[in-house]
Amino acid sequence: MNALAEPREIHGGCHCGNIGFVFTWPGGPTIPVRACGCAFCQKHGAVWTSHPDGAVRLDVTDEAQLNRYRFGTATADFHVCRTCGVAPIVTSAHDGDLYAVVNVKTFEDVDAADLDMSPADFDGESVDDRLARRKRNWTPVVLPKAES
Which of 16, 103, 123, 143 shows a CA-CA span of 20 to 30 A to 66? Predict the structure, then answer.
């Protein structure tokens, strides 16, 4: 974690509340966000952020109302709520670990002035390069502990 600033917990999720997350941002006054140029993100207005030193805890109330959508290279799962249609998080598995980006449009407690947006285009990236970039830049997912 960044020693210069306090970590910050950011809550987010879909409109109906079925898919929620807590994103631990490791610090810094602004959050860099990427407006992805792919057709899915463009059509959904999704804008993403991640931090390799952060953490994401994903909470799903009703798994039956969660749709995992894959397209293109089929190496990432867009978590889309079947009830309200919102995609608050994308996950990708690599080398046995799970990584995520979160949709800043689904944040519940962040001022838009705290976001620093830039475009992103990953067309032409090989699958291996894409997975390596995700492992390097995306946020590790912390899975909830199983209840005993």
Answer: 123
Kindly report the average pLDDT of the chain as a whole number: 87
Q: Which of 120, 144, 131, 132 is nearest to 59 (CA)?
A: 144
- For residue 22, pLDDT over 90 is answered with yes
- Contact of 48 with 139, CB cutoff 8 Å: no
Q: End-to-end alpha-carbon separation of the chain, Å?
A: 31
Which pair of structure tokens corresponds to residue 106? 């689904």
Is 23 in contact with 109 (CB distance < 8 Å)? no
- Give mean pLDDT, residues 61-70: 96
Task: Write down the architecture of domain 8-132 according to CATH.
Answer: Beta Complex (2.170)
Sign of the C-alpha dihedral computed for residues 59, 11, 48 and 27 taken in this order? negative
Tokens representing residue 6 in the block: 């306090």
- Could you give the CA distance from residue 1 to residue 72 in angstroms, rounded to a whole number? 33
pLDDT value for 143:
67
